Amino acid sequence: MEQINVILEDSLGVALIYRSTRKLTLTREGHRLLAAAHKMLEAVEGELVDLSVSATAPSGELRVTVPSVLSKSHFTEQIAAFSKAHPRIKLSLDFSDIRRDLIDAGFDIAIRMGPKAKATRTALQAMAEQKGVCRDFAHLAIALCRCMNIPARYCTGYLSDTGEPLPHPPGDFAAWMEVFLSGEWHMFDPRNNKPRFARILIARGRDATDVPLTQTFGQYPLTEFKVWTDELA
Question: Per the confidence metrics, is the pTM higher than 0.85?
Answer without folding.
Answer: no
